[in-house]
Amino acid sequence: MNKTGYVYETIFCQHDLPEHPENASRLGAILDYLTSNDIISQLTRVAARPATPNELQRCHHPLYIEMVEDTCRYGGGMLDGDTYTNSFSFDAAIQAAGGVIELTKAVVKGELDNGFALVRPPGHHAVPSSAMGFCLFGTAAIAARSARRDLKLERVAVIDFDVHHGNGTQAILNEDPHIFFASSHQYPFYPGTGALREIGRGPGEGAILNVPLSVMTGDDGIRRLYDEAVFAALRRFEPELILVSAGYDAHWQDPLANIGLTLKGYQWLSEGLIALANEICEGRIVFILEGGYNLEVLAPGVGNTFRALLGINNYDDPIGKCPWQEPEVDSLLSEIKRVHRL
User: Fold this and answer.
1) Given this model, what pLDDT does residue 1 score?
2) Intra-chain end-to-end CA distance of the chain, in Å
């Protein structure tokens, strides 16, 4: 069995607005599931710490960081129409970033085989100078940059299977040729970015791969697109570490989107990424919690990913098969292969 780490701190649940879809009950449901299914007892906890100003500034403007800190110090408030803060939110966000850095460090150094960071607030929509879409700081991008600079890795990959495009991660990494970013997401949809031809700029051109999905794409379509495009691009890039922005809101019963994945489909994605990490980067893979707003999907979805990380070959799907008919993905797959020369 693999030695799998996780990050969790109570501060992550103190960032909370109960009537908001991204609230503390999400982590509560996950922890209850991991406990009741005897998963958490098989994991190694990695303590979080606050990310340093230098680590945050690798991805965010110092004046923006100061603004978030000041807002929270005075009790919090809305940073945009979707993104709330309270007096705990800044501390939660910098502990989330620091926790992912520490978990990544333990995996890269071989102290753990792999891991999953159960952190909040999420991060993949936060752009360099503003909050967006429930997110304060770009946790995955911060961890990727820290792995490059502090752990001396040459190439890092960030894979985002949240149903919403990881626009913040892309904005931060857009010109970075050393960090490959791939995002599969419903399109056109919030946040409005993630078109197929967004492939990076300047020295980073070609290091961004977007997979814009039609509604109801489903398990079979996702499997083909990852197998023939995303995984092929990862093999070509040869990262030394894979970070995964793991959103469970592409499930067919999530209230905020319409892609049509099942928990079986999510399990295939998790197992496929883990197998690829074993193939190309000594198994170094770290999942980072992003979205997922149906707790009956989110909790077993995360539990299943932990099972895959531990090497347990089964999964739990209390919801079952999606009733929607899937569209074809041949034309999208052909265009991705053409644009990226796969």
Assistant:
1) 87
2) 35
